[in-house]
Design goal:
heterodimer; A: alpha+beta; 3-stranded antiparallel β-sheet; 8 helices; B: alpha+beta; 5-stranded mixed beta barrel
Chain lengths: 313, 149
C-alpha cells in the first residue's frame, strides 16, 4: 500500500514539475525570466523550457502597440480660459525587461506623464492657438513624452488630442465674434462695391465728355481747314484769272462777263412769275461787250482761215 | 470486462486522454506527460511483473525524457523555420537596413532620426544634422546607425 502512495506522489510531482518546466509565450508577448528573483533573460514568443524552482517567469509584457485613453481634464490656457481636453496615446513596449523593471506601473506612469505634459503645452498657448494648432500640440507632446518614456524601453508612437472643448459661454461668444466678423466683411464688401460702381460711372461720364469735346475740336479744326482750302482755291482761281488777263486779251474777259450777263438776263426772263424785265442802266455796256465779241471772233476767223472754230465758252 | 484489461492498457488510455486534452487545451505540458504515460505503458507491457512504484518512477523519468528530447533535438530544428515571426512585434527589427534622415545631430553618439512621422533615438558615430543614416541594428528603442554611403 505504501509503495502505491509513493508512486502516486511521484506521478503528481512529475506532473507539477513538467507543468512548471514548459512555458509557451504567445505571439505579441515577451516574458521575463527571473533566477531566484533576479532578471536573467527574456523569453520571445514560442515554446521554452525553464528549470523548475530555479527559474521562474517574472513579468509578462505585452509587446503589441497599445492604446491608452487619456481621460478628459480641465486645462487653463495662457489667456486664462478653461478648456476640457482628452486624448489617446499609442505606445509599444520595445524592451520587455526595461518596461518590466524600470518602472513600477507603466500604464499609470505613462498616463500621468501625458496628462501633465498636456497641461504644460496648453498652458503655454492662447485659446485660439490651442484650438487651431492641434498638430503642433500633438508633435510637441509626442516629443516630450517619447523622450521621457525612453528609459522604460517604451516607444510612444502617437499622441492625439481628441477633443478641446472650451466652456459653453465661450463657444457662444466665439460664434458671435465669428458672425460679427463675417457681417463686417460683408458690409465692407458691399460698400466697396458701391464705391467701385460710382467711380466707374463717373469715369464713364468723364470719358464721354472728353470724347465729345475732342469730337467738337476735331470738327472745328476740319472746318477751319476747309475754309482755308476754300480761300486758297479762290485765291488760286483769282490768281489764275488775273494771270490769264495779264497774259491774254482783255476782250476774252469781256466775253466772259458778257456771257454771264446774257445768261443772267435769260434766267430773269424765264422766271415764270416775272412779267416785267428790268434792265440795268448800263445795259448798253452789254451791247458794248458784244462788239468786243464780234471783234474777237473776227480776229480768230482771220487767224484760222475759213475753218470754223467753236467759240470758247 | 475490466479483468481483460492489463495495467499497461490503463497507461495507454491515460496517454490518449492526455494527448487529446493537449489538443483541446493549448498548454503543451500535457503532451510530454501523455508521451511519458504511453512509454510507461509500453514498459508495463514488456515487463508485466513491474511494481506500481517502479511504474510511477518510470513514468516520471520518461515524461522528463520526452521534454528533454524535444528541447535538445526537435526544437533547434523547428527554430530554423520561423524567421518570419522574428520580425513580428519587433518594430526595430523591421527597420534594419532602412535609411533615415537625422533631425538632430549625433553628438557623443546620440541623436535623433525621423522615421515616418515620428522620431527615434539613434546611436552611432557623430554626424551633422540632416545626414542620412542606415540602420544596422536595434537595441530596444534605440537604433544603431552608421552613415549611409
Amino acid at each position: 500500500m505504501g509503495s502505491i502512495a509513493i508512486g502516486v506522489v511521484i506521478i503528481v510531482l512529475a506532473v507539477i514539475i513538467i507543468a512548471k518546466l514548459v512555458r509557451i509565450v504567445p505571439q505579441g508577448y515577451e516574458w521575463t525570466v527571473e533566477t531566484f528573483g533576479r532578471y536573467t533573460r527574456t523569453l520571445s514568443p514560442g515554446l521554452h523550457f525553464l528549470v523548475p524552482f530555479y527559474q521562474a517567469v517574472g513579468a509578462r509584457m505585452n509587446m503589441m502597440e497599445q492604446v491608452l485613453d487619456v481621460p478628459s481634464q480641465d486645462v487653463i490656457t495662457k489667456d486664462n480660459a478653461v478648456v476640457r481636453v482628452d486624448g489617446v496615446v499609442f505606445y509599444q513596449v520595445l524592451d520587455a525587461a526595461k518596461a518590466a523593471y524600470e518602472v513600477a506601473n507603466l500604464e499609470q506612469a505613462s498616463l500621468a506623464l501625458v496628462m501633465t505634459n498636456i497641461r504644460t503645452v496648453l498652458g503655454s498657448m492662447d485659446l485660439d492657438e490651442s484650438l487651431s494648432k492641434r498638430d503642433t500640440i500633438n508633435a510637441q507632446l509626442l516629443r516630450v513624452v517619447d523622450e521621457a518614456t525612453h528609459p522604460w524601453g517604451v516607444k510612444v508612437n502617437r499622441i492625439e488630442i481628441k477633443d478641446i472643448a472650451p466652456p459653453r459661454d465661450l463657444v457662444d461668444a466665439m460664434a458671435k465674434q465669428m458672425k460679427a466678423e463675417r457681417e463686417k466683411r460683408s458690409n465692407i464688401l458691399e460698400a466697396e462695391g458701391f464705391k467701385q460702381a460710382a467711380i466707374l460711372k463717373a469715369d464713364g461720364e468723364k470719358q464721354s465728355a472728353i470724347l465729345a469735346a475732342e469730337g467738337k475740336k476735331e470738327a472745328a479744326f476740319r472746318e477751319a481747314e476747309a475754309r482755308i482750302r476754300l480761300a486758297e482755291a479762290e485765291a488760286e482761281a483769282t490768281r489764275m484769272v488775273s494771270d490769264a488777263i495779264a497774259n491774254g486779251n482783255l476782250n476774252a474777259l469781256n466775253y466772259f462777263v458778257a456771257n454771264k450777263y446774257v445768261e443772267a438776263l435769260k434766267e430773269i426772263a424765264h422766271s415764270p412769275n416775272q412779267k416785267m424785265l428790268l434792265l440795268p442802266m448800263e445795259a448798253t455796256g452789254i451791247i458794248g461787250s458784244l462788239a468786243g465779241i464780234a471783234e474777237m471772233a473776227k480776229e480768230a476767223l482771220s487767224q484760222q482761215g475759213t475753218k470754223a472754230v467753236p467759240l470758247p465758252r | 470486462m475490466f479483468s481483460t484489461l492489463a495495467i499497461h492498457h490503463f497507461w495507454w488510455l491515460l496517454a490518449l486522454l492526455l494527448i487529446a486534452l493537449e489538443v483541446a487545451l493549448p498548454g503543451y505540458f500535457l503532451l510530454w506527460i501523455g508521451i511519458g504515460a504511453g512509454a510507461t505503458g509500453v514498459l508495463a507491457w514488456l515487463f508485466p511483473g513491474m511494481s506500481l512504484l517502479a511504474q510511477a518512477i518510470a513514468f516520471a523519468v520518461l515524461a522528463f525524457l520526452a521534454c528533454a528530447v524535444y528541447a535538445r533535438v526537435l526544437k533547434p530544428r523547428l527554430r530554423r523555420g520561423d524567421a518570419a515571426s522574428e520580425r513580428l512585434n519587433r518594430r526595430g527589427a523591421q527597420m534594419v537596413g532602412q535609411r533615415y534622415v537625422l533631425i538632430e545631430p549625433i553628438v557623443n553618439g546620440r541623436g535623433k532620426a525621423r522615421v515616418g512621422d515620428g522620431e527615434w533615438l539613434v546611436n552611432g558615430p557623430d554626424l551633422p544634422l540632416g545626414a542620412t543614416v542606415e540602420v544596422v541594428g536595434v537595441d530596444g528603442n534605440t537604433l544603431q546607425v552608421r552613415p549611409a554611403t
